Request: fold
Amino acid sequence: EVQLVESGGGLVQPGGSLRLSCAGSGFTFSAYPMHWVRQAPGKGLESVSAISETGGTTYYASSVKGRFTVSRDNSKNTLYLQMGSLRAEDMAVYYCTRENPPGGTDYWGQGTLVTVSS
Amino acid sequence: DVVMTQSPLSLPVTLGQPASISCRSSQILIFSDGNTYLNWFQQRPGQSPRRLIYKVSDRDSGVPDRFSGSGSGTDFTLKISRVEAEDVGLYYCMQGTQWPWTFGQGTKVEIK
Reply:
């Protein structure tokens, strides 16, 4: 059974940093591009970042470019999102998702909540 | 960025009746490989999104066949042939043709 489990969310002050993790299981993690998608409270969905199977290619939404860094450790079946210079508008549930087939995401984790507040 | 516009944003439906959600993209969604990467997701209250449809009309495994997707170019539709109580929730279209992938605003389906 495919599972994606996010962790690392929590309360952080504006300007602070946080690292999210997503552990994948039940599939060959290294064979799939992976994505982070977020959802602000009561709002819609927003693509944040994506990373290729090997980690050699990364993508970022313009709203987070230069502040967030996506990475993966295929030996640990884990996806990461390093978030810096956090702002109130970054407050959201962050979902880890698997890209399959190309152009779409088939499995989503349960999400981890990031709260940015002083 | 490709803008995805859904309508309606609220859709009250009667149990057993059909429902239809429209999604329009600001650019043609045909990728260089000839595929159109238009997806539909369902998000039930308190749950993570679940994909229903990918590449315009391919249904994901386990998705009831009352859900169907159609369209081309910039105009796409999700249809529910007979709405059931478990279909209540938010529905989003999403394009995966051009980065950043973008979602529609969401359509709230509720029972009358």
Notes: The CA atoms of residues 8 and 20 of chain A lie 5 Å apart. Chain A has a mean pLDDT of 97.
